[in-house]
Design a protein that fits this description.
The protein is 75% helix and 0% strand. By secondary structure, it is mostly helical. The two termini are 12 Å apart.
């Protein structure tokens, strides 16, 4: 195996560097426009910024979750995209930095951070008088965010450290260490993203609660992460070494994961709607009333059809799941649909009627350009496969047959 390692270049192809440079340029140009929007329309800026931030954060955290899932289950499907997932996970330092503008926008985003005297709804004001003394405080918001990023960063650090050890001889079997971390790590991820979703998104409407809300974000993040991995593998499969590593069976497995998490997302979404509809409580149905009126209902219908129904039907086809060229178009579409889903969850809190602002169109490209540049920097830093992992033969040996 060592001879194969020496003769087989596993580093990302030069196109990764090209995409990194172009992404940085796009991010810089759109960031300038976003800065002008922030100066002229600060409310629109912070609303769009939060939506975009949750979108790109979801890809990073979802990638970390899939990576830990792979360490627990094994399989060539995960080995071939392991470094793609790892590169996305290692964008967390950038995302921690990009979280800072949200801190400056707390009063514009969250009603609980404003003077209570300015709230006209008496019941909401009485509710906030209690909760702002215990949980929803600016200091608590910041401290909890630091804790979330510390936990995510620690998990990412050890996963990366142990993985990097497998890029050099001798062959190492770190599977026991990965499993020991990944089991508790997935549980911590579930808890932290649930509380982060409550803090950063659900608390925009502090009078409404849902016990399944965090799981909705979790399912969307993992789905967007596997879709992103499919997009990147499709870009790389035109070049070595990915052209020799990616097998139809692996692509098929990635398609099955997409199908799985589409169904999980739909299950959580329907469960939340069914429970609230059956309860028919005024303090709960207000969330859906905002999203079924003023044109927002059409966005919800769009999500039912194009975030679930159509992708679900397409992914039932075995041939479709095994064709990376066709699968990638669906993956791109689902990434867009996930952004629309976040838009539908967040924006109705600020606008009674369906509205798309310039900020909603600019900020995703500004943030995404910077994020993609950092991602491809990470991808270029390590080989696409940890060649001295004891399980690497699942991917490497077919490439030399």
């Amino acid at each position: 195996m060592s001879a194969a390692h020496n003769n087989f270049d596993l580093m990302a192809p030069p196109v990764a560097k090209t995409i990194r440079q172009r992404s940085l340029l796009v991010g810089a140009v759109f960031s300038v426009v976003a800065g002008m929007i922030a100066w002229k329309w600060p409310d629109q800026f912070f609303h769009a910024y939060l939506i975009s931030y949750m979108d790109w954060l979801g890809i990073a955290l979802g990638s970390m979750a899939i990576l830990m899932l792979r360490h627990l289950t094994g399989g060539g499907w995960g080995m071939v995209i392991r470094r793609i997932l790892g590169a996305a996970m290692r964008t967390l330092p950038l995302l921690a930095l990009l979280f800072l503008p949200i801190l400056f926008g707390i009063p514009r985003l969250y009603i609980w951070a404003r003077p209570l005297d300015s709230i006209q709804d008496k019941l909401l004001r009485e509710h906030l008088e209690q909760i702002t003394k215990t949980y929803l405080t600016t200091n608590g918001f910041i401290v909890r965010a630091v804790i979330y990023f510390a936990i995510w960063g620690a998990v990412a650090f050890f996963l990366t450290k142990w993985s990097a050890e497998q890029d050099h001889p001798p062959i190492r079997d770190n599977s026991s260490r990965f499993k020991a971390l990944s089991g508790p790590g997935l549980i911590l991820y579930g808890f932290t993203i649930s509380f982060a979703a409550i803090d950063w998104v659900m608390s925009i409407d502090p009078g409404w609660i849902s016990t399944i809300y965090g799981l909705l974000h979790l399912a969307g993040q993992v789905l967007s992460a596997i879709c992103f991995a499919v997009v990147v593998e499709r870009i790389l499969v035109r070049y070595k070494p990915m052209s020799e590593l990616l097998q139809p069976d692996f692509v098929h497995d990635h398609g099955k994961l997409m199908l799985t998490f589409i169904m999980v997302w739909a299950y959580f979404s329907f469960s939340q709607w069914l429970i609230i509809w059956a309860g028919n409580l005024p303090e709960e149905i207000t969330w859906y009333m905002k999203r079924l009126n003023g044109g927002w209902g059409y966005v919800g219908l769009f999500l039912v059809l194009f975030h679930f129904a159509v992708p679900f039907v397409l992914l039932l086809s075995r041939a479709f799941k095994r064709d990376v060229t066709r699968l990638v178009w669906l993956a791109v579409w689902l990434l867009v649909a996930h952004y629309v889903d976040l838009f539908w969850m967040i924006e109705p809190n600020f606008s009674k009627t369906f509205t798309v602002t310039l900020a909603d169109l600019v900020i995703p490209f500004a943030m995404g350009g910077l994020w993609m540049s950092y991602f491809f920097r990470n991808l270029n830093a390590m080989p696409l496969v940890p060649a001295y992992d004891a399980d690497a033969k699942q991917v490497l040996e077919p490439a030399h047959e």
